[in-house]
Design a protein that fits this description.
It contains 17 helices and four strands. With 328 residues, it is mostly helical. Strands 1-4-2-3 form a four-stranded antiparallel sheet, with no helix packed on it.
Length: 328
């Protein structure tokens, strides 16, 4: 099976053989135990033509483990700039989400979420100004994979902005964000990535995914109570018009109310198979105009975090500091 060349880690020995495609055959290219130094990586990355590399299908779990176990080393390597680290971290996140969707019953892949999210948090703490750039820049062809990673990044960043600093709590929030749509793995891809608008029956079926997601991970021991609330309540609007339970106001957890804001914003600014993306500013303006759907104190903070408040509030609101939020 083909692997992505970007997954190699410098100065770390390989745990599997790597093969090169040669016509209709595969030849051994990099033997197990080889240390991937800069010279070998440079030959792969700088080749005048693309280098397509493969591993044995049975070695995929070994390769996945190699990637996640050496991710921290790559992120701490001074030879990579911040953009390269950001790209690699986001790409690995997407691959983990993809593997979870392919094997939703595998606790190994689910466990990778708990290994990845602390590294995502480390990145946010070292480069706090990069979150908005990251979620705007990395929108993959597969909407769902990049969406789940972006929600996790943005949700942890938002939590930090609101004053949450306890590392375990931030990781719990991030894991909930990364797995918030895990319930969608119970649906066929032809439904998830349908290019035409959903029929009413299809939409009602998909609205069950938060509840399904909670049932999938509740007994895994991987997702905390905070994470379970985020998975189960990330589509519940503050005015009770959300789903699947129609929860209202304080019946929702604070972390879920944060996730509702982040998930809605990220989803509406992303390209989906059946809908073009909207701009960040337009989405925030809509959210402000329909603020009854959201926890208004948290929405105010999210708008503040975006740095776009001067384009959202009226001149009078900006001058007086009096907006139309309920607590003003």
């Amino acid at each position: 099976m083909e692997i992505d060349n970007r997954m190699f880690c410098p100065n770390v020995a390989l745990d599997m053989n790597i093969y090169l495609e040669s016509g209709h055959y595969y030849t051994l290219y990099i033997p197990k135990g080889t240390v991937m130094d800069k010279g070998k990586l440079g030959h792969i990355y700088n080749s005048y033509k693309p280098v397509y590399l493969f591993i044995l299908k049975e070695d995929k779990p070994v390769f996945d483990n190699y990637v996640i176990m050496n991710l921290a080393a790559k992120l701490n390597n001074s030879g990579f700039n911040v953009e390269e680290k950001m790209e690699h971290l986001h790409y690995v996140g997407q691959k983990i989400v993809e593997d979870i969707f392919s094997n939703p019953e595998s606790m190994v892949y689910m466990g990778y979420a708990n290994m990845l999210v602390p590294l995502m948090l480390d990145f946010l703490e070292e480069y706090p100004g990069k979150c908005w750039e990251l979620v705007r820049k990395y929108k993959s062809k597969n909407y769902l994979w990049s969406h789940m990673v972006n929600v996790s990044f943005l949700l942890m960043s938002f939590a930090r902005f609101t004053g949450i600093r306890e590392r375990k709590k931030l990781v719990d929030i991030g894991v909930g964000g990364l797995l918030h749509d895990i319930g969608k793995s119970a649906f066929p891809e032809k439904l998830l990535f349908k290019e035409k608008p959903y029929l009413e029956g299809e939409l009602e079926e998909l609205k069950l995914h938060p509840r399904i997601g909670v049932e999938m991970v509740r007994d895994s021991g991987i997702v905390s109570d905070t994470g379970l609330l985020i998975i189960g309540q990330h589509h519940e609007f503050y005015d009770g018009s959300g789903y699947p339970s129609g929860l209202k106001g304080t019946l929702m957890s604070r972390y879920s109310a944060m996730a509702v804001i982040v998930e809605y914003f990220e989803g509406m600014t992303s390209r989906r198979p059946n809908r073009a993306p909207d701009s960040s500013l337009n989405v925030l303006r809509w959210m402000y105009s329909n603020k009854e759907h959201f926890d208004q104190k948290l929405l105010r903070k999210f708008i503040d975090m975006s740095g776009m408040e001067s384009s959202i509030y009226t001149d009078t609101e900006m001058a007086t500091g009096q907006t139309s939020f309920e607590d003003d």
